[in-house]
Design goal:
mainly beta, Lipocalin, 1 helix, 14% helix
Length: 133
């Protein structure tokens, strides 16, 4: 009888231990370095499309909710400023905020190796970034 109890106890202990193991949360698909590659600025008639640009602007996202840039994060356009800036991001809300942006939240979408920042403009204005390896 004692052996049966021991086997049942060990089986239950194994189940409890297996259930208590926490799976490490998957790495964010946003973490890493991104380079500005295209801009969309609609003229007001819905005809705007992404246009390729040459830029040195980069964004770097860490796994703690921080983002940094070698340029002002809230500037849609390429290399407008030489001022670096920092901010935070929320994956839950898909937003980026920075003190340099006067309380503006920038929405974003990540698809594979493309990051699109959606700025709060009257007409559509977006910036497309590609993941750096």
């Amino acid at each position: 009888m004692m052996m049966k109890k021991w086997i049942v106890f060990m089986a239950l202990l194994g189940i409890v231990c297996a259930c208590n193991k926490s799976d490490s949360s998957p790495k964010s698909n946003l973490v890493g370095s991104w380079k500005l590659s295209e801009i969309l600025a609609d003229p007001g008639d819905g005809s705007g499309t992404f246009k390729a640009i040459t830029s040195n602007k980069t964004l770097i996202f860490d796994d703690k909710g921080n983002v940094g840039s070698n340029n002002v994060i809230c500037n849609l356009y390429n290399d407008v400023s030489t001022k670096a800036s920092t901010g935070t991001y929320s994956e839950k809300n898909a937003t980026i905020t920075s003190a340099d942006c006067a309380n503006i939240k920038i929405n974003y979408v990540v698809k594979n190796d493309t990051l699109i920042l959606i700025y709060p403009c009257i007409e559509a204005c977006k910036a497309k970034y590609i993941r750096l390896r």
